[in-house]
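task queued by scheduler; priority normal; single chain, no ligands, no partner chains; default sampling; output format set to structure tokens
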Amino acid sequence: FRAIRERLGACPLNLVVMEATGGYETALAAALAAAEMPVVVVNPRQVRDFAKAIGRLAKTDRIDARVLALFAERVRPPLREMPDEALRTLAALLTRRRQLIEMLVAERNRLDHASPSVEKSLKQHIRWLEKRLDDVDSDLDQTIQQSPVWRAKEDLLRSVPGIGPVVSRTLLADLPELGSLNRKKIAALVGVAPLCKDSGTLRGKRMVWGGRAPVRAALFMGALIASRHNPVIRDFYKRLVDAGKPKKVALVACMRKMLTILNAMVRNNTRWSSQYALSA
């Protein structure tokens, strides 16, 4: 990255914008941030929508670079604090864990209707994946234990009935803003804030979309468990269903309520209590 830093350093620099590309951008963004350059990583869907809005429908590397420059100039995406090395390590381990889970599910599904000729191979691969999953979980435990701040925050998050290690660690790695934003902003960031789709007198359905998919998936599982075992969330869920809300809509509402509670707990450094949760 030295050549890129030197080339950028020779220019009058206001903002460096790059798209998220599945992790390939992480090291470069960190290197530029370490060199005290103003760098921001943006959602590629935002950039593509911007390109369509200004009539740039073709797509090549040269066109994409020009569109990114125009996006930076006109939209001015806000700078965010770049994750440090420890946080990037934790996020990478969680990503690897999700990949292993997906591969295990796929192989177990194949085993259900596999012919005898490939059954042995599938079982061997499943055992290997299970061992790798154990290794990653061990690495995650060690990474969390090495940070007093993460240990304390995970202990606080896991005091909530329905929040286990996977949810708490996903929040640590993929939602470092937890506790620093208000309830509306944190809900929009995760993608659990209902969005309007109205036009004139037409009132469209409110829908949730966008945001951080890994966090949303983790919160969904947490809300599913909490709707059965957490008294505050269970009563909230039951009230919505009794009022005629579809179960999935009620679960999404539980996700947002859990996120609001967790956000307040982290902000105020307060452990779970039913009374506190009701007032959050």
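post-processing summary
- The longest helix spans residues 116-145.
- Residues 104 and 130 are 8 Å apart (CA to CA).
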